[in-house]
Design goal:
Layout lengths: L1 H25 L7 H29 L9 H23 L3 H12 L5 H6 L15 E4 L6 E4 L4 H13 L15 H11 L7 H11 L21 E7 L6 H8 L3 H7 L12 E5 L3
Length: about 280
């Protein structure tokens, strides 16, 4: 009985001290009831905890999704896997090493991620030049707002790249090299003026050797071999209204550049009645 009485005395003191602590923070000096104030405090506390939890959830939702960033090596391998068959096909038809085509595409298009490539499917940095009559885009290069070729698909860009090299006489000497001789092809492209970068050939060779691209050159024997000697066939064409140098070349089955070289033409301009000597078909 003595211990029970002591227990109630201690409990009463504990409650009084606790209520006194609460009173300092929850009621004023008017001796209001504690219960209401205590319940109110619990409600406020509950609300604050709930809001904090909600705010944390909102913050988690607002964290932006970050896409996986691929390394330069990964992007290059993606590019190779995607276009190696196209490069091999172009090699078979035109004799340009697949390793050269792939390395140029990787370098010129920044592995297919450049601004120009994304807007135009132009993988080889080919400018319009005077012979281009297709769609185009403006892009800053050596000068501001230069005209670059635009294609419907990347494959069309690969095809045009092959024709670009085949149809221009200044690249003719390249086809004297074996299709497996990527080093001479790389230095030859630089010599012919494909790019202004003084280290262009070294960059092409570095890409080929780092990613073992020359293995694709071994997969196919080109069916294409071109004799580039421009020989006068003896035929003469008289220019009519509506003719273009390109249409005349196509109609006669010869390269436009060969027609220009044979006739010592510095531009593509023609005049009605002008006589054009037609080179012999290769």
């Amino acid at each position: 009985m003595k211990y029970n009485k002591l227990f109630y005395i201690v409990l009463a003191n504990f409650v009084f001290i606790s209520c006194a602590g609460i009173r300092k923070t929850t009621i004023d000096d008017n001796n209001e009831k504690f219960n209401g104030e205590i319940e109110l405090e619990e409600e406020v506390l509950s609300y604050v905890v709930e809001r904090k939890s909600s705010a944390e959830k909102e913050e988690e939702i607002e964290i932006p999704y970050i896409e996986k960033k691929y390394s330069e090596v990964e992007l290059t391998n993606f590019y190779i896997d995607k276009y190696k068959k196209v490069a091999i096909s172009e090699m078979k038809e035109y004799g340009i090493p697949a390793s050269i085509t792939l390395a140029q595409g990787i370098l010129e298009s920044s592995k297919g991620t450049s601004n120009l490539t994304s807007r135009s499917n132009n993988h080889f940095g080919l400018k319009c030049h005077t012979s281009w009559s297709g769609p185009s885009v403006l892009h800053d290069d050596d000068e501001a707002d230069e005209c670059f070729r635009k294609y419907d698909t990347p494959v069309a860009s690969f095809e045009d790249h092959s024709k670009f090299l085949v149809e221009r006489y200044k690249y003719a000497f390249l086809f004297n090299y074996e299709s497996t001789d990527y080093k001479n092809w790389a230095f030859g492209l630089k010599k012919a003026g494909y790019a202004t970068d003084p280290r262009y050939a070294h960059k092409i060779i570095s890409i080929i050797e780092r990613f073992d691209l020359n293995k694709f050159d071994q997969k196919v024997k080109p069916s294409f071999r071109k004799s580039w000697a421009v020989v006068d066939s003896g035929n003469v064409y008289v220019v009519e209204y509506g003719d273009t140098l390109f249409s005349i070349s196509q109609d006669n089955g010869v390269r436009m550049q060969a027609v220009k070289e044979l006739n010592k033409m510095k531009s593509n301009g023609l005049k009605v009645g002008q006589k054009i000597r037609i080179p012999k078909k290769n």
